[in-house]
Design goal:
By secondary structure, the chain is an alpha/beta fold. It is built from 20 helices and 26 strands. Strands 3-2-4-1-10-9-11-14 form an 8-stranded antiparallel β-sheet, covered by helices on one side. Strands 5-6-7-8-12-13 form a 6-stranded antiparallel β-sheet, with helices on one face. The protein has a 5-stranded parallel β-sheet with strand order 18-17-19-20-21, with helices on both faces. It is globular. Bound molecules: 5-amino-5-deoxy-1-O-phosphono-D-mannitol.
C-alpha cells in the first residue's frame, strides 16, 4: 500500500523523508521518490524498486531544502517504473504531488487535460498535478488551487502537494485514505499516511478526517473542509510503539488484513459498478468486449486459495451468465492436454501474479490461442503483464503469508466479471441491478460479521485443543469449506479437511469421533435443507458441530453446538460473508496454539517454483 510522508521545519528534509519511507516499507511498495524545495527550486528523485535504488540514485544527486514530500508507491495504474513513481508534476515542474488511493474518473479527466497538457505517465495521480496547475493562476494560493482541483475528482485520495510558486508550504488532503499531521515543535511538522513515519519525531498528532485539507507552513497549520470551512481539531497523543503502529494496533498482519476486507470490496467496485444500470465497467473486459462475446466456454486456472475463489467464480458465471466454466489447479493444468481453442476464455487468478504453476498454465493457454484474462493483485507482476487483459483486485499488499483479503477481492472481481459476461448474454437489467445493489451493500455487512470477533474467539477456546476438523458446505459455500480448512491448517497446524457436505456420507463420515469437530457453512440458501440433513448425520454419530448460518435462523441452535450468524445477502455473494468467521476462527485457534501466525512454518508468500 502506498505511503506518504512530508516534512517542513528547521532541519534538512531529505533524511527525514527517507527515514519515513524506510519505516513504511513494511506496507509493501514497488517504487519510491521524493521532492524537496529550497527557496523556489524543487529537486526530485524517484526510482523503481526498493528504497536502496532511490538511495543509490541520491548519492550522485545533491538535494537540500527544509520542505519536502516523499512516497512509496504500490502500483494501481501503470507499471511500477521510474516514470510512474511519485511525486508527479505539472507541465512546468512547478507543482509536485504524491497520492495514495484511486481517482475513479481519471480516464475522463485525462482525456480533457490531454488537450492542453502534456501527460507523461500512466498514473491517475498525474491528472491531479495538471488539475492543480489549471487552478493555480496569478494570485491563487496553493491550498486554494488544490481545493478547486479536488472538486473535479471522484475517488479516494490522501495527497500532499508542494509548489515553487507558493513555497514554504505543504498542502495535504484526505478523502478515503488516511493522513496524520505530527507536531514536532514550533515551526516544525511532519505529515504521513501512517503513524509509523511520525512516531520517531513526535507523538503529538492531529488526525485528518474525511474531506479535510491542511495547509502547513513554518508558522503553523490550518485545517479546513473541502468546502473551505475552518475546522478546529484536538491534538492527540499516540501511545503505540513502532511495531504496533505497523500493524495499526493489531497483534498480527493477518488480523489487520481480515479487518481490511470491507475496504477491499469498496476498492474493487469503486468506479466499476453502476448499480442503476446493472452493469460492471471493467476496463480490461471492455478492451476485449467483442472477443468475450464470442467465447462459449471458460477455464479458470489458479492455485491454493485463489483456486477456491475460482470455484465460486465458476458457479457464479454458470448460474448467471450461462457460460460452461471449469476450474483447474495450475500444477495439474500445465501437464494435461487441455482442450482449448479460440472460443475458450481462460481466466487466471493470482494474488502475487508470480505463482509458477499459474504462469506456466497461462502460457500454455496462450499457445492454444485462447483469450486470457487475469484477476491479479500485484500490479505489473508477470501474470498481469502477460494476460491479454485483466482486472486488478485492489486489495493492497497482503503481508501475512496466509491469504485472506486477496481471497475476498478475487470473489468480488468474479462477481463483476459475472455481471459483465451475463449482461452480454441473457442476464436481465433487473438481475444485473440486483447483484450490483447487493454487492454494494457487502462492505457494511462484512463490518457486522467482523464485529463477531469476540464471540468467535470464545468458540475457538472450546475447540483449539482438538486435532482434527471437517469443514463442509454446498454449492457457493463448498469452496468456503476448502478455504476454511486450508486457513486453519496453514496457520494453526490443526489437521482439517474441506468437503462437499453431500459427499461426506460416501466414506469420510467413518472418521467422526470425539477428537473431531465439524464446521458447517450453512446459510439459508437454496441448499440449506440439504446441509441440515448432513449436519444431522454428523450429530447422530456424536460429532461436535459449529454452524455458520443466516441471522434469524435460531432453529440452527437445535442442531449445532455453536452457531455463528451472518447477515442475509444474495446466495452468490454469501461466500464474501461466510469466509470471515472461518478466517477469525483459524486466527484465534492459531493464537491459542501459540503459532507463528504471519509466517507459518514451511510456507512462502509466493510460490515461484514448481
Ligand atoms: O499468489 P497466488 O494467489 O497465485 O498464490 C496461490 C497460492 O499459493 C496461495 O493462495 C496459497 O494457497 C496461500 N498460502 C493461501 O493462504
Amino acid at each position: 500500500m502506498c505511503g506518504i510522508v512530508g516534512y517542513i521545519g528547521k532541519n534538512e528534509a531529505k533524511p527525514i523523508l527517507l527515514d519515513g519511507l524506510k519505516r513504511m516499507e513494511y506496507r509493501g511498495y514497488d517504487s519510491a521518490g521524493i521532492a524537496v524545495l529550497e527557496g523556489t527550486n524543487i529537486s526530485t528523485c524517484k526510482k523503481e524498486g526498493k528504497l536502496s535504488n532511490l538511495l543509490s540514485a541520491l548519492e550522485s544527486q545533491e538535494i537540500t531544502g527544509r520542505v519536502g514530500i516523499g512516497h512509496t508507491r504500490w502500483a494501481t495504474h501503470g507499471q511500477p517504473n521510474d516514470i510512474n513513481a511519485h511525486p508527479h508534476s505539472d507541465c512546468r515542474d512547478e507543482i509536485f504531488i504524491i497520492h495514495n488511493g484511486i481517482i475513479e474518473n481519471f480516464h475522463e479527466l485525462r482525456e480533457k487535460l490531454k488537450k492542453h497538457h502534456e501527460l507523461t505517465t500512466e498514473t491517475d495521480t498525474e491528472v491531479l498535478a495538471h488539475l492543480i496547475e489549471d487552478e493555480m493562476t496569478e494570485g491563487v494560493l496553493l491550498e486554494q488551487a488544490v481545493q478547486q482541483a479536488l472538486s473535479h475528482v471522484v475517488g479516494a485520495y490522501g495527497i500532499a502537494v508542494v509548489s515553487s510558486k507558493d513555497p514554504e508550504k505543504i498542502v495535504a488532503a484526505r478523502l478515503g485514505s488516511p493522513l496524520v499531521l505530527g507536531i514536532i515543535g514550533e515551526g516544525e511538522f511532519i505529515i504521513a499516511s501512517d503513524p509509523t513515519a511520525i512516531i520517531p519525531y513526535t507523538r503529538e498528532v492531529v488526525y485528518l478526517d474525511e474531506g479535510e485539507i491542511v495547509t502547513v507552513t513554518p508558522k503553523g497549520y490550518d485545517i479546513r473542509t473541502l468546502e473551505n470551512i475552518t475546522v478546529t481539531k484536538d491534538v492527540t497523543k499516540i501511545d503505540w510503539d513502532v511495531a504496533q503502529a505497523e500493524k495499526q494496533g493489531y497483534d498480527h498482519f493477518l488480523l489487520k488484513e481480515i479487518m481490511e476486507q470491507p475496504e477491499v470490496i469498496h476498492n474493487g467496485i469503486r468506479g466499476r459498478l453502476i448499480p442503476e444500470e446493472g452493469v460492471a465497467h471493467l476496463g480490461g473486459f471492455l478492451q476485449k468486449e467483442e472477443e468475450w462475446r464470442k467465447i462459449d466456454r471458460i477455464t479458470i486456472v489458479a492455485c491454493g486459495t485463489a483456486s477456491f475463489a475460482a470455484k465460486i467464480g465458476a458457479t457464479m458465471i454458470e448460474e448467471y451468465a450461462g457460460v460452461p466454466t471449469r476450474v483447474e489447479i495450475g500444477s495439474e493444468f500445465r501437464y494435461k492436454k487441455p482442450v482449448l481453442d479460440d472460443r475458450t476464455g481462460v481466466i487466471v487468478v493470482s494474488q502475487s501474479g508470480e505463482t509458477a504453476d499459474t504462469i506456466a498454465s497461462l502460457r500454455e493457454a496462450k499457445r492454444h490461442g485462447s483469450l486470457t484474462f487475469g484477476i491479479v493483485n500485484v500490479v505489473g507482476s508477470t501474470i498481469a503483464r502477460e494476460v491479454d487483459s485483466g482486472a486488478y483486485i485492489h486489495a493492497g499488499p497482503e503481508i501475512s503469508v496466509a491469504s485472506t483479503k486477496a481471497f475476498v477481492g478475487m470473489v468480488n472481481i468474479f462477481a463483476l466479471v459475472t455481471i459483465a459476461l451475463g449482461r452480454q448474454r441473457e442476464m436481465s437489467l433487473v438481475t444485473g441491478q440486483r447483484i450490483a445493489k447487493e454487492l454494494t451493500d457487502i462492505p457494511k455487512l462484512m463490518d457486522q460479521v467482523l464485529a463477531l470477533d469476540k464471540q468467535i474467539a470464545k468458540i475457538a477456546k472450546k475447540y483449539y485443543a482438538l486435532d482434527h476438523a471437517f469443514y463442509m458446505g454446498r454449492k457457493y459455500n463448498e469452496p468456503i469449506a476448502y478455504e476454511g480448512a486450508l486457513k486453519i491448517k496453514e496457520i494453526s497446524y490443526l489437521h482439517a479437511e474441506g468437503y462437499a457436505a453431500g459427499e461426506f456420507k460416501h466414506g469420510a463420515i467413518a472418521l467422526i469421533d470425539d477428537r473431531f469437530f465439524s464446521v458447517f457453512i450453512a446459510p439459508q440458501d437454496s441448499v440449506y435443507e440439504k446441509n441440515l440433513s448432513n449436519i444431522q448425520e454428523v450429530r447422530a454419530r456424536g460429532g461436535k458441530v459449529i454452524a455458520v448460518t443466516t441471522e434469524g435462523n435460531t432453529d440452527m441452535e437445535n442442531f449445532a453446538d455453536d452457531v455463528i450468524y451472518i447477515p442475509k445477502t444474495l446466495e452468490m455473494l454469501t461466500p464474501l460473508l461466510s469466509v470471515i468467521p472461518l478466517q477469525l476462527f483459524a486466527y484465534h485457534v492459531a493464537k491459542l496454539r501459540d503459532c507463528d501466525i504471519d509466517q507459518p512454518r514451511n510456507l512462502a508468500k509466493s510460490v515461484t517454483v514448481e
